[in-house]
Structure formats: C-alpha cells, structure tokens
Model the fold of this input.
Amino acid sequence: MKITDIKTFPVWIGTRNQMLVKIETDEGIYGWGESGVSGRELAVQGAVQHYREFLLGQDPMQRGRMWQEMYRSQYFEGGRVLTGAISAIDIALYDIVGKKLGVPVYELLGGKQRDWVPTFASGNGKNTEELVAMGQSLWDAGYKAFRLSVDYEAEEDENLYEPREMIAKTAVALNAAREALGPEPVIGIDFHHRLSVAEASSFCNKLRPDTLDFLEEPIRDETPEAYIELRKMTNIPFALGEEFASKWQFLPYIEKGLTNFARIDVCNVGGITEAMKVAGWCEAHYIDLMPHNPLGPICVAATSHMAMAVPNFSWLEIRESPGEDNNFYDPKFFPVQPKIEPGKVTVLDQPGLGIEVDEDALTEPFRFSEPPHLHRNDGSYTNW
Done:
C-alpha cells in the first residue's frame, strides 16, 4: 500500500475553522486527521504541503518511521506549527492502519482498558449567581467534573481584562459554587495563562481549601522555574500541557512534579504516536491524562481511542454542555462519529477512528478570525 495523495481542508465549521487532513492510498483506503493549531490553520496547511512532497509513495503502515522523518527532516525541528501538521498526518495514518487491519485504533494501542471515556464540560457566568446556576445545570445534566469561569468581558470593552479585578470576582463565585454544590463534583478553572505568579498565588489564597480540584494553565509555560515557584505557594493540583508540542516540552513538568493532570492535545503534540509516549511517561509518575479537546469529531475520536487504551486517565474535555451551540460536531459534515453523552464518549467499534467526513460538504471556506487581543486599563496587552 502506498500514499497517493494528502489533501488539506482548512474550512469553517460551526463557529470556527477546522484544519482537516485526508490521506489517500492506492488501495482506496483513506484516513482523516485534524490539527489543533487554532487561529493559524493556513500555516499548518503550508507545513502539511511541505511534508506531502516526500510522503507520497510511502507505505502508510510505517507511521512510526514517518513520524521520525517528518520531525527530523528539517534543520528547525519541532514547534507548534510543524507538530500540528505532523499530528494531523499521524492521526490520519492511524485511521488508515486500523481500516487496513480491520480493527479500531484502540486495538493498535494495546486494546480497551475501559468501556467508555469520562468527560468534563465547561461553563461560565457573568456573576456569582449565574456561575452557581451553571455548575448546578452541569451536575444535573450528568457531568461529574467541570470547569467554571466568570466571563471576563467588560460591557464597555470586550477586550479589556484586568487580572486583579477578575481573580477577586472569580474567587467569590467559585467559593459560592462549592458551597452550593457540595463536595462531590470535581470543579476546576482554566485561567488560560493570563496571570503572573504573584496573581495566581493571590487567587489561590482567596479560595476555601476545598473549592478547587484543579487549576488549569494559571501562568504561561515557557519557564518551568516559574511553575516551581508557584507550586511552593499553593497545594491546588495543576492541569498543564495543552500548549506542549512534544514530549520534550512535557519533560520538566513531568520530571519535576509540576503538573498533576496532563492536558495533552493529540492534535498538537505530534499525534497519537507522540501522545502514547507521553502517556507512558505520565503513568510512571502517577499523573493522569486530562486531554485538551477543543476541536471537532476527528479530535474527539483520536483522543478517545487513546483514552480507551491507557490506564492513567481522568477526563476528556468535551465542547458540548447546556446552553452551548457551537456545531463543532455537526453531522452534516461528520455523518459518522463517536457517541457523545453528558459525562461520557463512546467510541464506535469499527475499523480505524470510527469517523467519516462528507468531503462534498466541506464548502465553507476558511475565514480569517482572531481570538480576543486582550488589554488592560492602561492600554498594555496581555495574554488571551
């Protein structure tokens, strides 16, 4: 079997672009993959086109060797754009291999370790009352774990973000949510790396000891030493890693005990091949996977197959919760996909990823779009 074509589809689906990749073979077997470098999809498309030039004619069964060739074939190794492209290609290759062998992808990874994949949802509110109500609605819907966030947009300027004002407002709301919901729900928050070490520490100090079960991405990840300092200041478990583009970026956070949940992104880290290596490393350090999964059904499927096959797993992020209508999983585009219910994903027991894409429906062209460019009251820019 040989690769005959690699096609890219940076297309608008629901409320965002999705960067899809299709690999075709001379046996008529094809595979689908997805890249997770949101907001810079055209850069990933260019990287895939570079890789296509030397992947055509190769045997898709040799996915591990091709991963090494893609990663090591340029002087400037790695980086999120390149590993985002490698991720999409790698996932599509797993889809092909599963179909060729007639088995679900999880069988290629060691077989089932669970019957379905636990998930967590996300919800927000403009104030304490809305946040408590959102937490209750997620719990009532069947989610045992969820993130809660206070909306950061100011009415007069949706791009205004003042960290000190927000951490005070958020701490009050989260304490109230825990008080109202009781000890059973798993509650976390994602700060989207918007804080400094001092701000993150102040936030943690404003919380009841039992309020949070995890704190996600409070500060940026480029400097592990900053997380070492923050780790000394709080005992709240950290959930980190959604921005990591290789096992090497995970290295200090695993080896130094800086993350308690690995927020691995299969569509960014280098695909299933690289994700399974990180998963084994995390297992050796008693760290559960808590995958980042903000994309479409291909990402859901690929991540769920990995989740089915590893022992150290907590919850998969899912973008479907009460009041949310993003259409990321629109069956018009994805007529066959994993079954999503509140609190769980069930993988289809069919060869490959268990995903089908209606290629003819991918007609909404790429749209240039930007996430919020946040600034503070003094006009300086901060992280989104």
Summary: The chain has two domains: 3-103, 108-350.
